[in-house]
Design goal:
With 136 residues, the chain is an alpha+beta fold. The chain has two domains: 51 residues; 71 residues, no CATH class. It contains five helices and five strands; from the N terminus they run αααβααββββ. The protein is globular. The relative contact order is 0.13.
């Protein structure tokens, strides 16, 4: 994500990484040389910001300003850019990335869903009105 566009601080991201690995707040605090209370606050604020971001995306989708795409298994990786660009064209959205950069972004964000130049697990893509993508 571009610098300045992230809703989470670097510290919140660190806390979430440790917590998602199964560390307790106390263990996370030791790793980051801070208090458990501070970790609790950082984690709480991070999760609140994540929920706000999700709500914003849902609102955009509800207004028809964002589109959700599903790239199904067996789809050739090279077709993903075509799928995205067709949808963007139909919505009159100018993409921020060219074909090569689109494919690189998808491959980077969904690397565990692509094998041997084919999609093996469904990739969910949200196309935002200003031409950026959220890839899950």
């Amino acid at each position: 994500m571009a610098k300045g566009l992230n809703l989470l601080t670097d510290r919140q991201i660190q806390v979430l990484k440790f917590r998602n690995r199964g560390l307790t707040q106390e263990e996370t605090a030791k790793q980051l040389k801070t208090t458990r209370e501070n970790i609790s606050i950082l984690e709480s604020r991070a999760r609140r910001n994540i929920n706000r971001a999700r709500a914003t995306i849902e609102t955009l989708q509800g207004l028809g300003l964002a589109a959700r795409l599903q790239v199904k298994p067996e789809t050739p990786v090279l077709d993903i850019a075509k799928i995205i660009l067709r949808k963007a064209d139909s919505l009159n959205v100018r993409m921020q990335l060219d074909c090569i950069d689109l494919l690189e972004k998808v491959k980077m964000k969904a690397r565990n869903k692509i094998k041997s130049k084919k999609v093996v697990k469904t990739i969910s893509i949200t196309l935002l009105p200003y031409g950026d993508l959220i890839i899950e």
